[in-house]
Amino acid sequence: MTAAVVPARADDAEALSRFAETAFVDTFGHLYDPADLAAFLADWNPPARIRAQIADPAWTIGLVRDAGGAIAGFAKLGPIDFALPEGQPADDATELHQLYVGEAAKGTGVAAALMQWGIAWARERAAILYLSVFTENPRAQAFYRRYGFVDVGRNAFRVGNHIDEDRIWRLDL
Questions:
Q1: 37-76, pLDDT tens digit by residue?
Q2: Which of 36, 108, 18, 98 minimizes the C-alpha distance to 61?
Q3: Other CB atoms closer than 10 Å to residue 16's CB: what's the count?
Q4: Could you tell me the CA-to-CA distances from 120 to 19, 126, 136 in Å, in that order?
Q5: In this structure, are residues 36 and 161 in contact, taking their beta carbons and an 8 Å threshold?
Q6: 142 φ, ψ (degrees, to nearest 5)
Q7: Closest CA to 103 of 10, 22, 1, 6
Q8: Does the global pTM surpass 0.85?
Q9: Which of 44, 89, 112, 130 counts the most CB atoms within 10 A of its CB?
């Protein structure tokens, strides 16, 4: 698959919301009590929030479409929304909030295209790119490590009443 990243448009918000939810549930849904998962998903990525982020120049969402025009993957970057560990600067920094690839597109270069696009966007705006990754997601950790990200501390990630340990990773741009 040729992975051309294009900026999301406001009319992509519904499809992006559904895609994000499906990708999250496919990857992590088995970890959570159904009530916790439902509570998390109810307010996580609603279309209205995605539309607002698309309209806000502090945010960007890039997506890759498959041959049929459906979303194959997306990356979302914007202002930092977690507490950084002691000693980690927030000034001149941005966050990779999400990078999700659909099951059918894994291993096709979609994730690499989205990461390269996201890093390029971040470099135009900041000196540091942060992200948060689940401690039990070695595939994602290996992927981010290949780009030079390093683990700088802990992030509590809440899904309903369940709290996971994520790690905050940093890339100096």
A1: 888 898 889 999 999 999 999 999 999 999 999 999 999 9
A2: 98
A3: 24
A4: 24, 10, 28
A5: yes
A6: -65, -40
A7: 22
A8: yes
A9: 130
Tokens of 74: 């997306």
Whose structure tokens read 């609603």? 46
128 within 8 A of 171, measured Cβ to Cβ: yes
Q: What is the token pair recorded at 76?
A: 């979302």
Side-chain half-sphere exposure of 125, counting CA atoms within 13 A: 20
Q: How many CA atoms lie within 13 A of 17 on its CB side?
A: 19
What is the chain's Cα-based Rg?
Answer: 15
Quote the mean pLDDT of the chain. 93
pLDDT of residue 161: 83
Note the maximum CA span of the chain: 46
Angle at 28 between CA 97 and CA 65, to 5 degrees: 55
Residue count of the chain, please give it.
Answer: 173
- Minimal CA–CA distance to 162: which of 127, 136, 124? 136
Residue with tokens 């291993």: 107
